[in-house]
Amino acid sequence: MSKIIVLIGAPGAGKGTQARLLEERREIPQISTGDMFREMKDADTPLARELKETMAAGKLASDDLTYQIVRDRTSREDPAKTYLLDGYPRTAVQAEQLEELAREQGREIQAIEVDVPRDELLKRLTGRRSCPVCGEIYNIYSKPPKADNVCDFHPEASLTHRADDNEESVSTRLATYDGQTKPLLEYYEKSGRLKKIGGTGELEAIYGEVEKAI
Predict the structure, then answer these.
(1) Of residues 52, 90, 195, 196, which has the active-site annotation?
(2) CB atoms near residue 168 (< 10 Å)
(3) Of 10, 32, 137, 192, which residue is most buried, by most CB within 10 angstroms?
(4) Average per-residue pLDDT in the chain?
(5) Domain 3-116+180-213, what architecture?
């Protein structure tokens, strides 16, 4: 049976990398709420107009509106195919709405959490550096450049550090994630549909575990 894969992971857990590998190797489309919302900005449909009016008023899209946007976007997928949702659901309410969509589409839901210890997430996020020329990503703890603070490919360029990649900001982001996501994890765990994958170690080993969970 085709599935809707709900991939869950804190900032820095490597969720995006695993989603990209699934898309490349298993041809499982990654459907992102961020991409959906950006697409809506250029569309002229009743849903797009409602979203634009909501955003223009400085409000967040309601659970119902977000669900309708997800439903509209995923209805374009080949019904025989599994797809992966990125950024949805975010709450237990949205998870309940997704059940309705899964029934309508004849798909099963499989939730996968990429779990990384808090101290490792802090290192991954606070240690990030990037080259302003080519965009190459480094990490002072796990993937440092050959020379201190300069790109291996563009030695004339000093690496940049995002202002919000400091310990205080990162800790706040992770605490917010925990608060929002705990009910979602409990929701899928209670129904036996949550697989927890360790997100540390070799990339290919982690991917292998994700693939087995599917």
Answers:
(1) 90
(2) 9
(3) 10
(4) 93
(5) 3-Layer(aba) Sandwich (3.40)
Question: What pLDDT digit, counting tens, does each position of 79-102 carry?
Answer: 678 999 988 998 889 999 999 999
Alpha-carbon span 205 to 185, nearest angstrom: 23
Whether 26 is a known active-site residue: answer no
Quote the CA–CA distance of 191 and 148 in Å, as a whole number: 49
Q: What is the pTM of this model?
A: 0.85
Residue 90 annotated among the catalytic residues of the structure: yes
Distance, C-alpha 137 to centroid of its chain: 18
| 3, 52, 71, 173: the active-site residue | 173
Q: What is the CA radius of gyration of the chain?
A: 19
Report d(CA 24, CA 16) in Å as an integer: 12
Neighbouring residues of 169: CB distance < 8 A, sequence distance ≥ 6? 163
Active site residue 129: no
Find how far residue 64's CA is from the centre of its chain: 20
Q: Of these residues, 73, 124, 128, 129, which one is catalytic?
A: 128
Structure confidence at residue 92 (pLDDT): 86
Catalytic pick from 15, 123, 124, 129?
Answer: 15
In the chain, pLDDT over 70 holds for what percent of residues?
Answer: 99
Task: Respond yes or no: is residue 162 known to be catalytic.
Answer: yes
Model confidence at 49: pLDDT above 70: yes
State both tokens at 50: 């409602």
Residue 20 falls in the annotated catalytic set: no
pLDDT of residue 40: 87
